[in-house]
Amino acid sequence: MNYLENIREALRSIQANMLRTVLTALIIAIGITALVGILTAIDGIQSSVDNSFSGLGANSFDIRNRDVFRIRKDGEKEKNYPPINYRQAKMYKALFGKSAVIGMKTNVTFNAEIKYESKKTNPNSRVIGTDENFLDMKGYKVSEGRQFSSNDLELATNVCIVGVDVVSQIFGKNISPINKEINILGGKFKVIGLLEKKGSFMGGGDDRVVFVPLETGRKLAHGRSLTFDIVTAAINIKDVENVMEEARGAMRIVRQDALGTPDSFSIERSDSLAKQSENITGVLRIGGFGIGFITLLGAAIALMNIMMVSVTERTREIGIRKSLGATPKVIRTQFLIEAIVICILGGLGGLMLAIPIGNVIANGIMSGTSSFIIPWLWMFVGITVCVIVGLFSGIYPAFKASKLDPIESLRYE
Asked: Measured between alpha carbons, how far is 344 from 195 in angstroms, rounded to an integer?
């Protein structure tokens, strides 16, 4: 049996029924676009998240407030942990600063309105006070200008480093923000630095930010109680676990946690966030594959229906082939190959649509920080699925065609 000749015959049949073929292939293409497009978008999102976390370093960990424990058990009162205050953060840095690199920050506000002349941002900009180490440890890079100097930090000067979203809202395209004065929470601040675009898993929050020196941030709070987060980086990545335990002990001393009681703070490695995001995208991949599979199942049923119609329309042709010596196996093979060829053609068209659509979706969700992804694995999976769908859709019509009586088929009008 000549499979190559069967493929040629399938292509001739496809060419003879071009409109039906295009419509059938379009059904498959939509299914493959849904499957591969969703998976490509998820891979693009994961790539952007990985890039965001890559600057944090696997050798660092964060010390933050512990969430309030609200579950009551056996009549116990809910546990309310006090926030990490400025004095405790400074004590920790003084106590542990020789064993590791320490960075501190405090969220002054999440809804600041930044002004420059007559322009102002939406009231959703973050103002964060930081020390000399925090920006580098969290992967923020200054594209123009400079970082905070020791004088800025010690004298609590009114200087700031701004994110690109803030700049785009209050400065024109041809205006450099460096050395311009902006209004933050009622005070005048000189812009000394512009951050590179960073993006965020939650949609760009890291670019709607204004950094000020830590002491300046405390002044902006106007006596309001602030909470401080601490990031610690081990000198050697191999020592991270040991340094984490030493840091835990130092922080318990600072927080005066009694022996036998749980930590009154949380400690978490930076790369654990990346692992959590991988788990989330893994679940999304399963969901995306399920949605794409359902779409392809509908496409397979539609293809089977079209192939059944094709068998009916070509009954006389099948009778002629059988009268000339074609066996049922040859007839089955011809119709199966025809179904598979149509699916592959539709699958190739779907891949051409899925890759750009998936990347556009990922870039839209990640505010343009996602890199262009060519999903070789999902392309291979897509073509494999097309072959499976072709077999599933074509096997019953092919079996039916092979069982037709040649004499009755020749009589068919």
From this structure: 47
Measured between alpha carbons, how far is 384 from 218 in angstroms, rounded to an integer?
60
- Which residues is 128 bridged to in the sheet? 107, 211
Please report which helix (H) or strand (E) contains residue 193, including its range. Answer: strand 187-195
In 58-180, where do the E strands start and end? 60-65, 101-112, 115-116, 119-120, 125-130, 142-145, 159-162
**Under 8 Å between Cβ of 210 and 135:** no
pLDDT tens digit sequence for 182-207 = 999 989 999 999 998 876 554 446 78
- Mean pLDDT of the 119-146 span: 90
User: How far is C-alpha 102 from the chain's CA centre?
Assistant: 29
Q: State how far the Cα of 343 lies from the Cα of 26, in Å rounded to an integer.
A: 9
Going 181 to 184 to 187 to 191, the CA torsion angle's sign is negative
**Assigned token pair, 51:** 């890039």
Sequence-distant (≥ 6) Cβ neighbours of residue 59 within 8 angstroms: 233, 234, 236, 237, 240
Domain ranges (residues) in the chain: 3-53+275-411, 82-263
Contacts of 370 (CB under 8 A, 6+ apart): 44, 45, 47, 48, 359, 362, 363
Cα(381)–Cα(296) distance, rounded to whole angstroms? 13
Tokens of 144: 């123009």
Identity of the residue numbered 161: I
**CB-based contacts of 320, cutoff 8 Å, min separation 6:** 409, 410
Contact 271, 61 (CB under 8 A): no
pLDDT tens-digit profile of 323-343?
Answer: 777 777 777 777 788 788 888
Sign of the CA dihedral with 245 first, then 250, 256, and 259 last: positive
Which residue is listed with tokens 């196996």?
329
pTM score, two decimals? 0.58
